[in-house]
Write a structure and sequence with these properties.
It contains seven helices and five strands, in the order βαβαααβαβααβ. Strands 2-3-1-4-5 form a five-stranded parallel β-sheet, with helices on both faces. α2 crosses α4, α4 packs across α7 and α6 packs across α7 (about 155-180). The chain is an alpha/beta fold and about 180 residues long. It has helices at about 15-30, 35-45, 60-70, 70-95, 110-115, 135-145, 155-180, and strands at about 5-10, 30-35, 100-105, 120-130, 185. About 50% of the residues lie in helices and about 15% in strands.
Length: about 180
């Protein structure tokens, strides 16, 4: 029996994960799903008591969040959330036998988590995207924003988001090196 093929596209926000997933999906006819969709689905079926980190940052604005939390705290919260989300990703990979191959993309895919996946039933093809171009990052923040549409929140938040993106990209690069996975800038 041929192994199922799973392409995992991880990395920091705004690095092109969804664009790459969509292009590969369209070009090769491979279904794809975002870790955001998996996270949102999990929120409807799991207990807030057992998975509290899935419910971080809901019903709060960017300004409210960054008045209370530093970039380091935000990254820490996201790692905890992503650890919970990865349980859903892993379950999806292990229990979804309908797709012979698929693409899963999103920020909740971390090198550490991917290094824990191994099975005789499927092969994993990890791709990590990072971006250290500060001009491009600023342009994204001014035109698109991260938390919400850029025009919906104050400029001081975009400065914090720039720091967040730079540190998050550095995190993915270091983690890829630690777990001997390739990343693409």
């Amino acid at each position: 029996m041929e192994k199922r093929r799973i392409i995992l596209i991880g990395g920091a926000p705004a690095t092109g994960k969804s664009v790459l997933a969509k292009k590969l999906s369209n070009e090769y006819g491979i279904p794809w799903i975002s870790t955001d969709v998996i996270r949102d689905w999990m929120k409807t079926v799991v207990s807030k008591d057992k998975y509290p980190h899935l419910f971080n940052f809901t019903e709060i604005t960017a300004e409210e969040h960054y008045k209370k939390h530093s970039v380091a705290e935000t990254i820490k919260f996201e790692k905890l959330r992503d650890q919970d989300v990865f349980k859903g990703i892993k379950s999806f990979i292990e229990k979804n036998n309908d797709w012979e191959e698929c693409i899963i993309e999103g920020i909740s895919l971390h090198p550490k988590f991917i290094s824990q996946l191994n099975s005789e039933d499927y092969e994993i093809y990890p791709i990590f995207l990072v971006d250290n171009d500060e001009k491009r990052i600023k342009d994204i923040l001014v035109t698109r924003g991260l938390w919400d549409d850029a025009h919906t929140y104050e400029d001081w938040v975009k400065d914090i988001e720039e720091e967040y993106l730079i540190k998050t990209n550095q995190y993915y690069m270091k983690e890829c090196e630690k777990y001997k996975l390739k990343y693409f800038e």
